[in-house]
Amino acid sequence: MSDRPGLSIVIPHRKGESIEDSLTHIRALSAGSRSVEVLTVCGNQPSVQRNACIRRSHAEFLYFLDNDSEPEPQNILRAMQLFEDSRVAVVGGPNLPRAGQQGIQRDFSAILASPLAVGPVADRYRSSGPVREATDRELILCNLFIRKSVLEELGAFREDLYPNEENEFMNRIQSAGYKLMYDPEIKVHRSPRPDYFSFVRMLLGYGAGRFKQMAVDFRWHNLAFFIPALFALYILAAPLVWALFGAGIWTVEHMTLQQWLSAPVESASSWVFVLYNSLLLMYGSILGFAASQTFVRLRPPRSAISFFRLPWLFFSVHFFYGLGIWKGLMASIKKEKKVVEYEIQELQL
Question: What is the pTM of this model?
Answer without folding.
Answer: 0.90
